[in-house]
Amino acid sequence: MLLTMPPALLLTLTLSAGAQAPPSPEPVAPAQPGWSPTYAVRAGGPLLGSVSAGVIRGRRREQPDACPSVGGWLLRGEAGVGGGRVDVGPAFTYCYSRFGALAGAALTGSLVRTWGRPLGAEANRTYAGPSLTLGAADWSLGLGVVWRIDAGEDGDTLFTWSVGRGF
């Protein structure tokens, strides 16, 4: 006795015998620890025009077909016509490059020292306080409030701000 298969079942078995399973997606690479530099040119108060350089020490995540993202601790120094500052605090960037990011944020503690002719402040004074830096499309906006930590006759509170290219 001869067994026969229906033609549809025979075609299905024939096609599936040569088919291969779809490739599995590439595994997500774990974030790598490291140092990521940052640079910027800024204008604002009290530093007037300034340049900054820093590093983000933390984890850098890079995936195929995705933007590199960096998150960790930022240490940044900035020198300008009207003073200088040092910022330390947590930072995150998305689509990171050395000169900015598609998006980024840093919440830092800032130490500001004025000299020369600072904008809206007395020269040769030292201030400390929190600052927030937000970045978008390789541009950044910085806002902060700092309090004088040395003796002087001017006001105790200083609002800092900047607009810049880079993070």
Structure description:
This protein is mostly beta strands and 167 residues long. The chain is 7% helix and 60% strand. It is built from 1 helix and 8 strands, in the order H-E-E-E-E-E-E-E-E. The chain has one helix at residues 7-18, and strands spanning 32-45, 48-61, 69-80, 83-97, 100-114, 126-136, 139-148, 157-166. The protein has an 8-stranded antiparallel β-barrel with strand order 1-2-3-4-5-6-7-8. The termini are far apart.
Helices and strands, with pairings:
Blueprint: H1 7-18, E1 32-45, E2 48-61, E3 69-80, E4 83-97, E5 100-114, E6 126-136, E7 139-148, E8 157-166
Antiparallel strand pairs: 1-2, 1-8, 2-3, 3-4, 4-5, 5-6, 6-7, 7-8
Tags for this entry?
167 residues, eight-stranded antiparallel barrel, 8 strands, 60% strand, elongated
* Structural class determined from secondary elements: mainly beta
- Summed up, the helix count is 1
Sequence of strands across the biggest β-sheet: 1-2-3-4-5-6-7-8
Instruction: Supply Rg.
Output: 27 Å
The unreliable regions are none
Distance between the termini: 81 Å
Mean pLDDT: 84
Oligomerization state: single chain
Principal-axes shape call? elongated
What letter string, H or E per element, gives the SSE order?
HEEEEEEEE
Q: Determine the strand fraction and express it as a percent band.
A: over 45%
Q: Roughly what percent helix?
A: under 10%
Task: Give the total of beta strands.
Answer: 8
